[in-house]
């Protein structure tokens, strides 16, 4: 299952992404928001990040105006590796290198065509399993252990 969420600044683009997920027959759960009324992005980024951290969701996608606020929130949840991507190269590299489990981007930054291409690449690129990348991700977990009590 893919957890998806946005604030008002990412709502319209989230609708496009959900349409893409539906067309691909991918299971998803929408954690809101559900219209363009002004809301606070942490309230919608957190449940998506928690769904990924708990294993309820395999991956998460969170969209706000810039992608930055939701990325900051998601990366404060232990076990989440959120990647803010505005280009296809980063979307591929973050899966291969970081095994990112949450994708974020900004509706005020990306057009829908590029956003869907990024989603497609990110969802379909496997982690490399390279030992150097595993070692580095283990070091991220060590940072979490030190600071995320
Ligand atoms: C909302 O105006 C905007 O601040 C939010 O969508 C996001 O860009 C924050 O990082």
Question: How would you explain this protein's 3D organization?
Answer:
With 149 residues, this protein is of the alpha/beta class. It has helices spanning 11-23, 42-54, 68-74, 88-98, 112-124, 131-147; strands spanning 2-6, 28-30, 59-64, 82-84, 102-106. The chain has a 5-stranded parallel sheet, with helices on both faces. The protein starts with a strand and ends with a helix. Bound molecules: D-ribose.
Keywords:
15% strand, 6 helices, 50% helix, binds D-ribose, alpha/beta
Give the SSE layout.
Layout: E1 2-6, H1 11-23, E2 28-30, H2 42-54, E3 59-64, H3 68-74, E4 82-84, H4 88-98, E5 102-106, H5 112-124, H6 131-147
Parallel strand pairs: 1-2, 1-3, 3-5, 4-5
Helix pairs in contact: 1-5, 2-3, 4-5
Bound molecules: D-ribose.
Order of helices and strands: EHEHEHEHEHH
User: How many separate helices?
Assistant: 6
Number of strands: 5
**Mean pLDDT, all residues:** 98
Strand order of the largest sheet: 2-1-3-5-4
Described by the principal axes of the CA atoms, the overall outline is: globular
Report the bound ligands by name, code or SMILES: D-ribose
In percent terms, what proportion of residues is strand?
5-15%
Distance from first to last alpha carbon: 28 Å
- Low-pLDDT stretches are none
Query: What is the makeup of the main sheet?
Result: 5 strands, parallel
If you compute it from the alpha carbons, what radius of gyration comes out, rounded to the nearest whole angstrom?
14 Å
Decide which structural class fits the backbone.
alpha/beta
The percent of residues in helical segments reads 40-55%
């Amino acid at each position: 299952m893919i957890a998806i969420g946005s604030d008002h600044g990412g709502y319209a683009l989230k609708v496009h992404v959900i349409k893409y997920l539906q067309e691909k027959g991918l299971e998803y759960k929408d954690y809101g928001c559900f219209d363009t009324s002004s809301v606070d992005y942490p309230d919608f980024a957190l449940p998506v990040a928690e769904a990924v951290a708990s294993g309820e969701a395999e991956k998460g996608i969170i969209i706000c105006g810039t992608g930055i606020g939701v990325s900051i929130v998601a990366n404060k949840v232990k076990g989440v590796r959120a990647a803010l991507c505005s280009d296809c190269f980063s979307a591929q590299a973050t899966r291969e290198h970081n095994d990112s489990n949450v994708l974020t981007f900004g509706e005020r930054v990306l057009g829908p065509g590029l956003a869907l291409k990024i989603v497609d690449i990110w969802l379909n690129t496997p982690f490399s399993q390279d030992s150097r990348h595993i070692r580095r991700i283990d070091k991220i977990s060590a940072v979490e252990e030190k600071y995320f009590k």
